[in-house]
Write a structure and sequence with these properties.
The chain has 17 helices and 15 strands. The strands form 3 sheets. The protein has a 6-stranded mixed sheet with strand order 9-8-7-6-5-10, sandwiched between helices. The chain has a 5-stranded antiparallel sheet with strand order 11-12-13-14-15, with helices on both faces. With about 450 residues, the protein is α+β, with helices and mostly antiparallel strands. The model has no long low-confidence stretch (mean pLDDT about 85).
Length: about 450
């Protein structure tokens, strides 16, 4: 992308003055970031560093106990490679940190090591990113072009030979900015303000350029780093360089925790805990609440309180919904409630509430408790009971005035099935009369 702003144009001009990576830097990377290997083939050892092949003495001891040294190149402590086919490639990122005309510069290199039997290891070095950081924390990144491969979008599939340019701030560009180099070249050079703001040689498992940008851009990040609040500090470091919203929201509580020498071990869990306290109207400026002696115990206790509150709210919503459904059901089917049909010792009566539908379904282990049954307008559901206990559930189609279904335990027909269905059919005129009354009333 063509540089547009004054800052981008200045960065591009400075980038042209940056020297190519030296042979000394390359040799350091080859030695520092890759392990050394050998492979066994036809009972002979093959050094994958120089390509030498030799017959080992006491192969089993050499492979599993004693260190393996190549007699040709002298590489010691070679690692044995299992399941070797023909060749192998290893990839790794490394960085050089320097200062260029008031900018903190982080250069990211991508090195590939290619290994094959009977030939020396080959290395390919490419500078894939440059991150230029001003003293105010503003970062401008120049990257090599990266392409997609088929259906999979590999965000760091670099197009070797392309130039370092200021790229569009896309999603994949942000992902590339978050790459953390495996090793950093010794002799790093940093701006004085970076050392003043808390940098002491360690990046707390963050990308160096994002680390520098955060401590320069946000006073909160500098404060948290110097206070040893590493978990909270990490919330200030992001690809976009935007301060995490929860840091801003709970900053007063964080300051109180620091004044009480309370170290937050897990920022995510602590923020969840503060959210629990907030929900129960606890004072977030009181060290008693925000700095518990046993954090896990306090977190679990409030988490359980939240769970019980949610369960109570769920039950209340269910009861409220049931009351609403009951009122609608009574309005729709109330004129059938005084109906009673006898079939010998069996009494057949309408179900009078949604709760009775649920209880009927639980006792007979069928799906009558489903809400679609008590909400059906042209349907009447009745219960055939013997000694007060349900035997079968009958559904009557009010449009056609016929029995739609009659189900007993686990949807099976009982020994009383025919008698129950016949009794309902003989009294269908009573059902029809009440249905007509409802239509007239409506």
């Amino acid at each position: 992308m063509k540089p547009k702003t004054k800052l981008q144009k200045k960065v591009v001009k400075l980038s042209c003055k940056v020297p190519d990576v030296s042979e000394e830097d390359k040799r350091w990377a080859e030695e520092a970031i890759f392990d050394k290997h050998y492979v066994e083939c036809r009972n002979r050892y093959n050094c994958l560093e120089c390509g030498h092949k030799w017959n080992p003495n006491n192969a089993e001891m050499s492979k599993y106990i004693l260190p393996t040294t190549c007699p040709e190149c002298g590489e010691r402590n070679l690692n044995h490679v299992d399941h070797w086919e023909t060749d192998e490639s290893k990839y790794e990122y490394w960085a050089i940190i320097d200062v260029v005309e008031g900018f903190q510069l982080v250069r990211i290199f991508f090195t590939e090591k290619y290994m094959k039997r009977k030939q020396p290891a080959q290395y390919i070095h490419n500078e894939v990113m440059q991150h230029w950081i001003r003293e105010d924390g503003k970062m401008t990144s120049m990257t090599m072009l990266a392409s997609s491969m088929g259906a999979y979008n590999y965000y760091d599939s670099w197009s070797y030979g392309s130039d370092l340019e200021v790229r569009t701030n896309s999603h994949n560009h942000k992902r590339r900015q978050s790459i953390i180099p495996w090793k950093i070249r010794p002799g790093r050079n940093t701006l004085p303000i970076i050392r003043r703001n808390g940098y002491n040689g360690y990046f707390k498992d963050e990308a160096p350029h994002l680390f520098f940008s955060a401590i320069l851009r946000y006073p909160e990040a500098e404060t948290l780093l110097k206070a040893g609040q590493i978990s909270l500090f990490k919330k200030c470091v992001s690809v976009e360089g935007e301060l995490h919203s929860k840091i801003e929201k709970y900053w007063d509580s964080i300051c109180i925790a620091m004044r009480n020498d309370y170290i937050v071990e897990d920022a995510n869990d602590w923020f969840d805990y503060l959210g629990f306290l907030e929900e129960f109207d606890r004072d977030l400026h009181n060290p008693y609440y925000i700095c518990p002696d046993n954090f896990k115990q306090a977190h679990d206790r409030y988490n359980e309180k939240i769970r019980r509150r949610r369960e109570k709210e769920r039950r209340e919503r269910k009861r409220r919904k049931m009351r609403e459904n009951h009122a609608k059901y009574v309005e729709s089917k109330g004129h059938f409630f005084d109906l009673q049909i006898s079939a010998g010792d069996i009494k057949i009566v309408p179900l009078k509430s949604p709760q009775e539908f649920i209880e009927e379904g639980e006792k007979l282990h069928h799906c009558i408790g489903n809400s679609r049954y008590y909400k059906k307008e042209n349907s009447l559901v009745m219960s055939a009971r013997m000694d007060g206990e349900p035997v079968e559930t009958i559904e009557v189609d009010l449009t056609n005035l016929e029995v739609s279904q009659a189900r007993g335990l686990q949807n099976e027909a009982t020994d009383h099935h025919d008698r129950i269905v016949e009794a309902v059919r003989q009294n269908m005129n009573k059902i029809a009369k009440r249905a007509q009354q409802q239509e007239v009333a409506a």
